[in-house]
Structure prediction request, 843 residues.
Amino acid sequence: MRMIVAFEKTERVRHIGHLDLLRAMQRALRRSGLPLRYSQGFNPHGMLSFASPLPVGVSGAEELMDAALEADVPEEKFRERLAPAMPYSLPMLRCRAVSDAHPKLMARLQTASYTAALPVSSGSEAMAASIPGLLERDVIWAVRRTKSGEKSCDIRPMLHALDAAVGEEAVVFACRVSLTERETLKPTLLLETLAGQAGIPWEEHAASVRLRRECLYGEKDRLPVALYDL
Amino acid sequence: METAARVDALLDSVQRPARYIGGEMNAAAKPWEAAAVRFALCFPDTYEVGMSHLGMKILYEIVNSRPDTLCERIFAPWVDMADLMRGRGVPLFSLESRRPARDFDVVGFTLQYELCYTSVLAMLDLAGIPLETKDRGNGDPIVIAGGPCAFNPEPLHAFIDAFCLGDGEELIGEVLDAVRAAKAAGEDRLACLSRLAAVEGVYIPAFYEATYQTDGRLDSFEPKRAEAKAILRKRVVANLDAAPFPQRFIVPFQEIVHDRIMLEIMRGCTRGCRFCQAGMLYRPVRERGVDTLLSLAEKLLASTGYEEMSLSSLSTGDYTRLEALVRRLSDRFENSRVSLSLPSLRLDKDLHESLALAQKVRKGSLTFAPEAGTQRLRDVINKGVSEEDLLRTARDAFAAGNGAVKLYFMIGLPTETDEDIDGIVRSARLVSDEYFKIPKGERPRGLRVSVSVSSFVPKPFTPFQWAAQDTMERLREKQNRLRAGLKAVKGAAFHWHDPQASFLEACFSRGDRRLSGVLLEAWRRGCRFDGWSEQFRFDTWMEAFAACGLDPAFYANRERAGEELLPWAFIGAGVTQAYLWEERARSLAAEVTKDCRESCNGCGLMEVCFPCA
Prediction:
């Protein structure tokens, strides 16, 4: 069987890279004593996979990993063993047992929601005010920077929701964007585009944005459903 | 909590932010307010270097297991982070609670190598702690230091309030007790230092005075206060098997240099290699029992989830029950996907069986340290291994399917000639030949004979403490000769050390109090992380020496006479100066001294501080 595990990547450890996180989880599973399945071969490694790697610098409220087990373990027992084996900066939230035939998390991932906090300023407030204008547009051209150069593309089909809350200290933008192998909209590109819409130089804000991935979604009946539950 | 938020705000703009985040598995989180004494354990190098050091783990565990104390870690911020912190006024902070270093009662440094000294100054400065002990007041932390470099503490005498000599397991507790008592009694700084001076093994440099002759040699070294002892004896943990050892290690997120469980099976070495400071400082030899080690291994694997374990000591092959230990560890963890490594193996024992067992778990490269290229020079340095030992072990390694061999040598050893240099090339060639003697198809693929050649640095408390280091020019000539010779050896790769760094290391390893001024000057001129070649600024160091009116060659390249008062002579390291001088004479006659486990050589340890087992 396999276990889908939800955990938080807290803000404190947002700079851990994906490979380091994978190794941390491998070790947490070893500490737990749970019967993780191992690959065959010269350098066997525990069969763990993640729904989607989180970029360095981004925290995650509910990240998902998938652990293949050699023997069946009840969810409650799994949680009891793994939770204390996780570092306090990566707390385990919940787990769900699925069969080996259950589709891979990555295969069903469609969108992700993010929050992005920016310090309150005339710039960030102007960005918040520009949201309705941006959403009204049928086509939103954005410039993607890739290894092969700059590329213009329409991000409108990948933008599913966007709003903002202006607080005392921060303007918090909340968005849901596409996150699939085929098309992915990075929240930073969305913010940059929004800044463009507001006529604000994004470079001045880019360093102070604090990103958090809130939830990963699949789709059921054309509606977003939390990937964990799918 | 203000510092924590300010630290966090910097992390998006630095390289390797994981160095500064803390939050690792098994990191302590003791409540600040409940602790009577707060200890900041500092390593004057980066996170990945400092986290690899076993002594840090041992002290961290001991201090945190006391109910009245709290211990948090601090590493040297890399240059980008340090600059950013200075620019934004963020003070040096601890990893656990991200509190300023200067909020701790005691700030303790471990001194593992001389080239970290500027990092000590950089850390004190970032912490906002006055650099020099004379400028510190009652509100400042007590700055202590220990580790092998504390055996010649003088170059750092101006900056460290108290040095701790020898094994720290018991000593650290007594130091914390003294600080706690002074704090509870509301005593001033001087009274606290006086209490510390009463602790066996603690040296308070401010309580002593040194004078110099006109030619620069030390003239006198005297205590100037009643509580300052004339001779400072190192501390020794009598029973290592009963001594505390952590049952969990902090498991870093980022990869560190030694990212594995280090199981200290033994402390001390009595082989008596004459260049080796550790071999003299960590005497006597003490072993942990096989049962203790099995139990520790089990707990550590369960608490860390590490997939690799190394058996750590100065000379693993000398552990009396090595085969039993390796067999039991392999049996016990055979199904747990744990690989076992055995560093610091010597060549002169038939370790075939142990190696074969270790190999069963995972293949790694094998390292051998003949240290010198000819039998004559190996006799001079008392490295009791023969050419046949080297070749037999190489054969065993190749037969066990291992094509990668690392050989460690030194150049610049006393009495060395070109013949000895050529001997290094010859040794590498013989190892390479052994490989090609095995028929193709039967031998492991990919021969790699890595020849690492460091430059000899004479160290205090060794028979070579009086010796002159080769000049940098001479060392370069020897390196060129090696490079040319090794080109012709199939599969050989030559690795060497920068002679400038070895030169500076030699100045500080045998330096006196006047080097505090040079250190301060070099640090002010921008020297930092001198052990990192890309940061090392040799010319600036030379300018600092010149500014202080001191000649570095006086320290590095000068042969000392037997009657010269050495700056570290007041420290009782167990092994006596008389014995070291005797060993020096035997060395020059190329006479070998046997391991004292066979019969006592009278090194002095017995009389001075401790009955050998």
